[in-house]
Amino acid sequence: METVYQILKMFFVVFFLFGLTFASAPAGGDFAPAAPCEPGDPEKYLQISADGEGFDTWRPVNTKGGYRYGPSMILNADGSLDVWSAANGPGDIVDVVTYKRLSEGGAKSTGEVIALKPTADSYDWKWTCDPGVIRFGGYYYIGYTTTLDERGVANVVCVARGRTPTGPFEKWTGAGWGVEPAPLIEYTGNPECFGVGEPSFVVVGDTLYIYYTWADERGASTRVATADATDENWPATLVYHGECIPPKNGGDSADVKYVDAFGRFAAVFTEKRFSDDSYVAVWESFDGLTFRPCGLVKADTAKKLHNCGISGRADGHIGAGDTVYLSYAYGGAGNGEWGNWATRMHTVTLSLSDAPFTDDASVENADITVERKNVKIIPEVMTVKAENQVYRLTDESVRVWAMAFDADGYCFPVLSGVTFDGYDPSVVRIVGSRIYPVGEGRTRVYLRWHGFSGDFVVYVDPAE
To answer: Is-above-0.90 flag for pTM?
Structure first.
């Protein structure tokens, strides 16, 4: 069946070469600047409740599965919603960050594209995962999880910036913004554990708050750092404040926003993840550095949920009167179902109560079943990449095959229209799709096809 599918895809390649257009979603507009934040009433506790059973924004494919988890969402002034998610990557890439824009309460969606992906032969070579997105100072910043370890442990946080929701993005190099990524936040614990990752950002005044998971033998806690939001190189100004939420009850990443009307930071994360008793925990803070439990979201949410996100404005604030969305991945985690999850979204209501509510035993999840989507015959191309990330040459040439990938992870070879640029001509010479060695060294090469781009690295080694 898959062979037939690939043949059909090859038949339709010609349709991509005529009239194919790729455009980023238009800007949704900015809200008026937020008023100075006033501390809320510590005698009141934040509550969040789902407005019904919600709707799916992603479903796994019948034959391949797939996922879109850890959504980071920006609400625009026109009511549209920008959504970035972690997605299964193409080929030898494990995770990428995808983007789409939802409007009319989620009823309409732009085509999904890959916004951020790994840089070949670099620190984030296989992983750009768990996005946390914020916009300030004229840039969208995407924080993400990555690692050099093939096993997906000993993770770090990296960050990239771009002028539009889909880039192009520059990555923090440790000294500025460029191509070769370096960690924004490093892990110093047991290298056999998850490490750090899953960042979330909020700007209050001139201070950028960075929340991230720290997962070691104790479990997954949330830590916080701050930086100077007025400094273009703010990653160099980080101040670490330590743990702000202790290890969770089988929980995962915290997504944090500032609720203007109630004068407090709100953190949401899942507990008892992947179980039938899972729920979204709600914690709050008045200074952004210390949090307390205050509520939970369980009624009307799916079972086996995990990796949630809550919407906010570009700067991470929830303004009075804003429509607020809660989204999460859900579905099985065992029996071959790992990485085979749907994504669900709800509008939610925020309110205050006189006492915290954390009794999850008194609430039941909704009985929501993961539905799968059928495979499309004509694919929607999301990215293009070289067959390999790294090529090593001595005295012989090599042909580089380009592969296009769709939203469901299927691929097909690109046979024409591919160009190459950005390489060092003292190291290699490229004719058509064939690379010839010129001199010893290393060079990055950019592959381009109909508005999509990918990169790979060529090493020319001394002849034996």
So the answer is: yes
